[in-house]
What does this fold into?
Amino acid sequence: MVRKEIEKLLKQASEKLSIDGQVSVSFSSLPGLCDYQSNSVFALAKASGQNPYDLANKIVEAVEPTELFTFEVARPAFINIKLTQKGYNHFAEALFKDKRCGVKKISNQKVLLDYGGANVAKALHVGHLRSPIIGEALKRLYKFLGEEVISDVHLGDWGLQMGLTELQLYEDGKLDYYFSGKGAEPKLTLEMLNEAYPKASARKNVDEEFKRKADEWTLKIQNKEKPYYQIYQKIREVSVKEIKKHYGELGAEFDLWLGESDADEYINKALGIIENKGLSRISDGAVVVDVAVEGENIPIPKKSEDEVQRYKNPMPPAILKKYNGGALYATTDIATILMRNTEIGGLNRIEYIVDARQKNHFVQVFRVCKMAEISPSDQELIHIGYGTMNGSDGKPFKTRSGDTIKLEDIINMLIDKASEKLKSNGVEYDRKLALQIGVAAMKFGDLSNNVGKDYVFDLDKFLSFEGKTGPYLQYTVCRINSVLNKAQAEGGQINIESDEEKEIIKNILKLNSSYEIAYKEKSLNNLCLASYDLASAFSTFYNNHKILTEKDERKKASYISLLKLVKKALTQALDVLAIEVPEKM
It folds into this structure.
């Protein structure tokens, strides 16, 4: 809002001087000196052959008179801009009256977001946390900024884990009814699946015959043979019910609950398109597509900054069909893109929020789809790869015994830790409140880091009611609500007078700018940090001003409106981050 207004004034001034070029404005790097700055004069002077300092002064002199800003030149050729008293009041009122608190819509694209990606027949674990957290926030961000977004959980329900689980259950005598027809039909439970899959997964690594049988079993499921497919459907039903429960507790919502199996009918169609274009070949009985490009080398991640960069061989071929005719993850992902473009259509982007370690997989899939024109040339296929969530030792978060922690255990840990925190503050046990605070702590702890970076999961630090944490932001809004409830007043015209009030307005404007930064970077860390800065600025104001006991009614009315503005800005940001605000803390 403010930056665009300043850029407009400076652009008009430069055009008066017949100076053509881009004029940009940013928040000041020295906030004690000014509110905004422009460094554009250096480029403008170079293009026009003028002295930068002289040109900066000419531009400032040519700026249309305004009561909202003051412009000054600082050597060597910076233009420093300050909001005047009227400027602060003008923009504070504009922010207050705007339903979106000054945030503009910036895109109208149609986007499909693929996140969640839980595997059926496996217990959700800590590795399933980041995708729904990041995906849900990006979905809300995109929608808020004007895009039509379709979210799909894309369940892993068509791979080897299905064959492994069923075969193990069969060998454990749990599926005799389906093959003999004798006795009562067993009730397949989550506990049975959680026991069978890990057992089978370990066996496949040491028992080649078991692995071969599991491959055959998987193919029978994929061919929908009886009773293999019917058993699969029951396993899927039990798993999805549990997945929905846990994703619901994390606040992750999906428009589509489809899986790899739903794209099954498109597999042969996709393979036919690829074959007809002469892209596929047979290699050791498998169907593959060569996707490497000339001169390509794949960097091997360095263990330290000082290590010499080394490279792998060029990108290997994408395997689309196994020796026995079975489909792989690449096959179902390609078929899913064909399905989405056929059944949904008009998608400008398809984005995948998946572990960064899957980068090569998506490079292969995307290249095949572009080569085969399964994805239109103007459609973006994007993999947003996230880093790992680590323990204090810097390694992926696990139990003390080295086992992967189940998502259910993480959620219970969040509730227990938050309950302890609330109890120490004199609040009785409330599971819903503890879940809200615990989930907020985890989400903010995750999203405040750059999406592509690993980060340390420190729940005690995340749950603090002070500092850069989710509970601190929740507490700030609750504190504002408490004051507003006690005041029982409508408020009035906002008059920005003190430095603390000015800081609030500047931080709302910075928060508004962070939405576009988050959109471009596909990472929510800027939005998180800007939200914290606003909450911190409010806290300083709150501590230095008597709001409820203010004698000057005009000032008091202004304060009440300012509180409502801060609440609206913070609540709006927290909603994008998918963080709920409790009624009280």
